[in-house]
Write a structure and sequence with these properties.
The chain has 330 residues and is an all-alpha fold. The protein is 77% helix and 0% strand.
């Protein structure tokens, strides 16, 4: 057990030091201008490691202290007290309560929701500005190019912010549904918002798979139709441009990464009383993703693929150590 704890501590420390400080900055700000899904992926990978703190496993005091300091938010907005005071949080199991989680979805998700809404509002505002200045922009190419770049940046920010928080929606919505009593009215409102965003999140992910599927079919049968399709969904290019388009499975790799993150969040919150079952399912998902990465090689750039191998190896090592610790606790 001591060896497993040491292994786990080294793995989680490495992941935390390497990515915790940069994950949220890059995934929420840098991705706006770089335009790569790799930044959102880094945020998802970080949370795959961070979320194991909610598992009921025995760890050293040093590691417990490290858990308390982990955070993926650089910019944070607290929910207004006038809202949160409308109801009280229900008592949560200790493995959630000791990290100051609330039973109400909206209280936990508020900061991410505000960040996403800011990105959406900036995008819509710039789109409106572009339409109002359409005639002037025809003769001012530099200004037009700059404005279009800002629009793409805000679009990428909002889109990748949504994708990098889909696992948070699953986690917080299921947590809310498990422990909230739907009374008083604000608690019920939080639960409804959680369910609505959960449905929207699943629809967004299914839409992603559909877009890649249509792309693959059009590439094989209708190159002209593919060109029109790409123009129509130009703002969604960031979701698939980093991956090989030679097959549906390769081109939809980012969607699979998000799916894995959502399922992992579900495992953590829904099976919180069975740490061994949690660890087994997490390791199985890691093995499947590693096999998929090795067999399909989905990335266009070698550097991106090597980076993903590093991420997957870190997550696999951490989850394997968690499995060993869960077995030792039996």
């Amino acid at each position: 057990e001591a060896g497993a704890t040491t292994c786990f501590a080294e793995s989680s420390s490495l992941m935390t030091n390497a990515s915790q400080a940069t994950a949220s900055i890059l995934s929420k700000i840098g991705s706006s201008f770089v335009g790569s899904s790799m930044f959102a992926n880094l945020g998802l990978i970080t949370k795959l490691v961070q979320n194991i703190r909610y598992m009921r496993i025995n760890v050293s005091q040093g590691l417990e202290n490290a858990f308390q300091t982990w955070s993926s938010d650089v910019l944070s907005w607290e929910i207004p007290e006038k809202l949160s005071s409308q109801s009280e949080s229900q008592t949560l199991p200790d493995n959630f309560a000791k990290y100051d989680l609330d039973s109400r979805f909206l209280v936990n998700y508020w900061s991410t929701l505000v960040s996403t809404l800011i990105g959406i509002c900036l995008f819509l505002g710039l789109k409106l500005l572009k339409s109002l200045l359409a005639k002037k922009l025809q003769t001012r190419k530099i200004l037009s190019t700059l404005l279009q770049s800002l629009i793409m940046g805000c679009s990428n920010f909002a889109l990748l912010q949504v994708y990098s928080s889909l696992d948070d929606i699953v986690f917080n919505a299921v947590l809310d549904l498990q422990f909230t009593k739907f009374s008083p009215l604000f608690s019920l409102f939080c639960s409804i918002i959680g369910v609505i965003l959960l449905i929207i999140g699943v629809c967004i992910l299914l839409g992603h798979y559909w877009i890649v599927y249509r792309y693959t079919k059009l590439k094989k049968s209708d190159p002209n139709g593919l060109e029109r399709f790409l123009q129509k969904f130009e703002l969604l290019e960031v979701l698939h441009q980093d991956y090989k388009d030679t097959s549906f499975l390769r081109h939809s790799y980012f969607a699979f990464l998000v799916t894995r993150a959502m399922l992992a969040a579900l495992v953590i919150v829904a099976f919180y009383q069975q740490p061994l079952a949690q660890a087994i399912m997490l390791v199985i998902m890691n093995c499947l993703m590693l096999a998929y990465l090795i067999i399909k090689g989905p990335y266009k750039e070698v550097y991106d693929e090597i980076t993903q191998y590093f991420y997957e190896f870190i997550v696999f090592t951490v989850h394997l150590c968690v499995l060993i610790m869960a077995l030792a606790d039996q």
